[in-house]
Amino acid sequence: MNARWQILVVDDEEVMSESLAAWLREDGYTVDTAASGREAIEKAKAKEYAIYFLDLKMPGGIDGIETLMEIRRMQPEASIIMITAYATVDTAITAMKEGAQEYIVKPCNPQEISLLAARIIKVKNLQRENAILRKKLEKQYKFHDLVSKSPKMLEIFELVKDVASLKSTVLIQGGSGTGK
C-alpha cells in the first residue's frame, strides 16, 4: 500500500539523506534521494512524488525555499516537509507561506518521520478514494438519462442545466406526490 506512493528526500548531507530514506523504506515506501535543489527539480520533472522532504540550506545556488516554490508550481498536490538544522522563525514562516506542510528541526526522530509520512499518506489515500467515488457517482447519475416529450418537462430540463453548475441552494416547489 505504501509502495505506490513515491517520496523524494533532498539533502546535501549524504548521511542525513540516506538515513531518512532508509527509515522511510523500512515503512514500505518507495524513496529516491537528491543531493541538491537542482537535482530535486529535475527528478520532480521526471516523476511525481507524493511527499518531498527538503533540506533548507543546500549548496548549488538553489536553497530549500526556492526548491519548494518550484516543486509547488509543478506539483501543487505534493506534500512538502522542510527539514533544517538552522531553524529560525523567519524561515519557518517563509516555508509555511510558500506551501510547506511541516517544518522539522534536525536531528530528526525516526518515529516522528514515520508518523508524519503515515499521516500524509492516509490523507492522500482518502483524497484519492473520494475522487474515485465522485467519478463513480457522476457516471451513475447522468442528466442525459432523463427522457420526456412534454414541453413543460423540456423547459424544466433547461432550467436544471442552467442551475446545475451553480454552488447555490435551489428550492423546488410543487404539490405532494408530483415527483419533485
Mean pLDDT comes to 86
Strand-residue fraction? 5-15%
CATH superfamily: Response regulator
Do you know the CATH topology?
Rossmann fold
Amount of helix: 40-55%
Helix/strand structural class: alpha/beta
Helix and strand run = EHEHEHEHEHH
> Rg from C-alpha positions?
24 Å
Give the spatial strand order of the biggest sheet: 2-1-3-4-5
Number of strands: 5
- What does the largest sheet look like? 5 strands, parallel
Q: What distinguishing features does this structure have?
A:
5 strands; 180 residues; Rossmann fold; 5-stranded parallel sheet
Give an overview of the whole structure:
The chain has one domain: Response regulator (Rossmann fold). Helices cover 49% and strands 14% of the residues. The chain is built from six helices and five strands; from the N terminus they run βαβαβαβαβαα. The protein has helices at 14-26, 37-46, 64-74, 89-97, 110-140, 151-164, and strands at residues 6-10, 30-34, 51-55, 79-84, 102-105. It has a five-stranded parallel β-sheet with strand order 2-1-3-4-5, with helices on both faces. The two termini are 44 Å apart. The mean pLDDT is 86.
Furnish the topology, listing elements before pairings.
Blueprint: E1 6-10, H1 14-26, E2 30-34, H2 37-46, E3 51-55, H3 64-74, E4 79-84, H4 89-97, E5 102-105, H5 110-140, H6 151-164
Parallel strand pairs: 1-2, 1-3, 3-4, 4-5
Helix pairs in contact: 2-3
